[in-house]
Amino acid sequence: MTLKLRCEDYGFECEFEIDEEKSIALIEKLRNHFEEEHGIDYTMGAVTQMITNRGHSLESIKK
Ligand SMILES: [Zn+2]
Questions:
Q1: CB 27 within 8 A of CB 63
Q2: How far apart (Å, rounded) are the C-alpha atoms in residues 48 and 28?
Q3: From ligand 1's centre to the CA of 9, what distance in Å?
Q4: 4 alpha carbon to ligand 1 midpoint, in Å?
Q5: Is 0.70 surpassed by the pTM of this model?
Q6: 41 pLDDT above the threshold of 60
């Protein structure tokens, strides 16, 4: 199952988006993007929370 994440959904004016298999790597990519492009060093936990707050279920990949 894939998950589409768009940076603009997280409050940035940015066209970055990821659309791939739900996995920890997907969350890491978004986290790394926030850090590299926007200079915000979110924790994995914070990014996971942001994604679930958008209504996406991450149950299947939670450790
Ligand atoms: Zn962005």
A1: no
A2: 9
A3: 10
A4: 14
A5: yes
A6: yes
